[in-house]
Every structure is written in C-alpha cells, then in structure tokens.
Amino acid sequence: MKLFTALLLAAGLAAPAAAAEAPARSGWTIMAYLNADADLAQIGPVLLEGLEKAGSSEGVEIVAELAVAGSSPRRLHINRRGGEPGSEFLEKAEGADMGDWRHMADFIMWAKRRYPAKHYLFFSFGHGIGWIDPTDTGMNAVFNWDKPRGGSKATMITAKPSGGYSYISTPQLADVFRLAGPVDVYFTFSCLMQMAETVYEMRDYAKVFVGSEEVIAVNRGLIGGYMAGMERAAKGLSSSPETPAERVACVLVNSLRETLTGYATYPVSFSVLRAKELSGLPARAAAFAAAVRGNNERAAAAYAIANVVRMVPVYGSDRRNSSYADLYDFARLLGEKAEKEETRAAARELMGYISGRLVSANASFGGAGGYFARARGIAVEMTPLARPADAQMLPSGYDAEMTTDYAGLSFVKASGWGDFLAWTASVWKEAGAK
Q1: Do 50 and 134 belong to one domain?
Q2: Which residue among 72, 129, 321, 362 is least crowded, i.e. fewest CB within 10 A of its CB?
C-alpha cells in the first residue's frame, strides 16, 4: 500500500484513486481519520464508540483509522449489521505518521478501494489551529510544549516516528484530495478550521464542509451530539442512500445544536458551508474591502476591530490576542458605523452572500451573554486587539516561525485580504490599540 502511494506520487498523478476504484458496493462509505495521539488519547476511542453505535449497514460502510498514545495507527471496519456494535481489526499502518498529508491521502485511497461507494463522507478528528502553520520551533513557542509532539491541521497531535512535530499544512489539505480524489462531505472535528483561508484551499474537493470556527471544548454534551449525529446520518443514509450531501451535513450540525443548546455556557460553533459558493466569496470580500478603504472608513473599521466576535486564540485564552474573527459579524459592525452608502451596500452584499448562499446551516451560540450567536459560520484573519510581545501571530511578525506564507494562500491571493489586513492594522495602531 505504501509502495503504491509512493509510486503514484513519484509519477505526479493527481487523483488516480477514482479511476482505480471497483464498482460501488454501497451508497456511502464513511471514512474516519481519528488522530488521537498524545493529549487526545482518551477522546479518540470515545469517538470510535460513536461510529460503532452508528454501525455499518447494507447501504453504508464505516471504516476508521485510529492512533492513540504514540501507537501505530490501526485500520478498522465498523460492524453491526443487525448485531452488536464493534470494530473489526483490518490492518496496522506500522510506523505511519498521521500528521503526514500523504498518509491521510493513502487512507482515503485505501478506503475507496476496499469499500467503494457512490458517495463518501470523510471525518477528520484531531487538533486544529486554523490557517496558521508554525515550524517545529514555532509550535513550541505557540503551545508551550515541553517535549516533542506533533501537530497536524485537522488531524493534529501526532508525533513523527523519527521524533519532533508533524502536521498537515493549509495548502497540503488540498494536496490530500488532489491525490486521493474528492469526497461529498468533509467533516472536521477540530478547533478553528472553519475559516475562509482553510476551506477555500479545498473548495474543489468536497460538496459541503462541516466544521467549527471556534475552539471545540470537548465534553459529554459535545460527544453526545456527535454520536447522535453520526447515528442519525448513518441510519438515514442506510434507508435513503441518495440523500444529498448537504442534507447529511445538516443532520450532523443540527444534532450538535439540539444536544448542546442549554447545556453549554462556553461558545459553540458548527456550520455547513456549500463548497460551490466558496468561489464567489473572494470577489465579495474584495469589494467590501475596497469600499471600506476607498471611502476611508477608519472610524467604522476601528469599531469593528474592537467589537467583532473573536475565537479563542491559538496562543493563550485572551480573545483580545486572537486574530481569528467572524467574517459576517465584522462586515455587520463596520456597515453599521460606515459613513458612506457604498460601504454599507458592500457590507450588506457580503453578509447576504454568507447567510443566504454560502452557509447552509449554522449552530453558533453560548459565551457571556450569548454573544457567540452573532457568529454566522465562517471566520477570517483579522487584526487583533492586543498581542503579548512573545507571541506575535500576525503574518508580518510571524514569518520566521511559519511554514505557510499568508499572502500565498489561495483565498488571500483571490481576495487581496492581506492588503486589507495591512490597512486595518494601521487603523488600529492609529486608534491607540490597547
């Protein structure tokens, strides 16, 4: 299997898995990539139990790869065809690194070959840190880890077999599916990954994206919502295998909403994004930014920077240090204070696109006074309110610790958002940032 993948990569083939697949034997195959190494070791097996509770059926096959506490990943088939829930061991990926994008692609190709289906749901569990891709040194500075651990975007924490860190960078998320072929639903159970900068990279490789703008505070309520969602989705697909991908994704998010409403006081955010609508987001973000800058809406911009809904930062817990903010809420606040109608109209256009076309379902609530209800399902990089001197995270001050250049991200190049951030940073400095 590894030799097969290596040969494909050496040949430069883009997505050979689709061409090599056998005829579909089921309506759907759910592929769960559970990277529960290091500090997530207790959570991964619980998520596996949720898959077992859902169970494979005549119309749905469920397979998983699970790694815990530094062990080699195990590949499993989730049973329960009319019987007791459980997992059948299939093989061990000896010495494999789940924080390597090639291995994630290998798992998807393996699942497609072994359990070919008409439709695919890819479920990825692990730590996530949004678009930021720190180096080994940068990870240690950001997370204050006292020993080598790995980190992988949307698959994170894993230790490389050779030691040190390992993670899948934002551009590599697209590389995974460029090699392995597309899926219908991409469900990321990881912190901070529902960002314009991350999902836009993968826009051509899924029909819908399910994920969270916010840090996911794992507890019984959240796990219960996940289990209920997976069980409902699997049973629904078993009886109706042609259920549209968007409907499947909405079942997952609605189950989390129903389970967590009234249960949690911390902020919760899960949303469904329509992949085909991501292509229209950069132009609207660019038009909004151009109107703001062209009309010199400095006071309105400072107001929005100061009051926008922000996610828990990668570094620490003080939201003033966070450079991740809800895009809809930022446009709303700025539009409310803008002096020119052109700016207000551009804000309304961006907001309408997000709520009316891009976001299919949104479960955002919680936080002090319920403020997180203002979040509408997609985040973006934004000038922070404050920043400790030892944790500069803005692209301009963090380049030495980055493996990914912010200006090189597809969304940033298509929207010019990096230039807008340089302008908002100057506005906030002028306003006397605290």
Answers
A1: yes
A2: 72
Per the structure, the complete domain to which residue 59 belongs is given by 2-278
Nearest Cα to 335, choosing from 368, 279, 278, 295?
Answer: 295
Quickly list H helices, 339-409: 341-353, 395-398
Compute how many other C-beta atoms are within 10 angstroms of the C-beta atom of residue 204: 14
Distance, in Å, from the CA atom of 183 to the CA atom of 119, rounded to the nearest integer, reads: 7
Rounded CA gap, 138 and 401, in Å?
5
310-357 pLDDT, tens digit each: 998 766 667 877 899 999 999 999 999 999 999 999 999 999 999 999
CA-nearest of 126, 117, 188, 180 to 155 is 126
Closest CA to 329 of 410, 267, 400, 389: 267
Classify strands 268-274 and 26-36 as parallel, antiparallel or unpaired. Answer: unpaired
Amino acid letter, residue 17: A
Same domain (yes/no): 203, 301: no
Q: List 124's β-bridge partners, or say none.
A: 33, 188
Which residue's entry shows tokens 């289990």?
227
The SS3 call for residue 253 is helix
In this predicted model, what pLDDT tens digit does every residue of 68-110 receive, in sequence order? 876 788 999 998 766 667 788 899 988 888 888 999 999 999 9
Q: Give CA 317 to chain center in angstroms.
A: 20
DSSP 315: S
* 58 touches 80 (CB < 8 A): no
Kindly state the tokens that stand for 265.
Answer: 């006081």
For 274, residues 6+ apart whose C-beta sits below 8 A from its C-beta are: 207, 208, 246, 357, 358, 359, 360
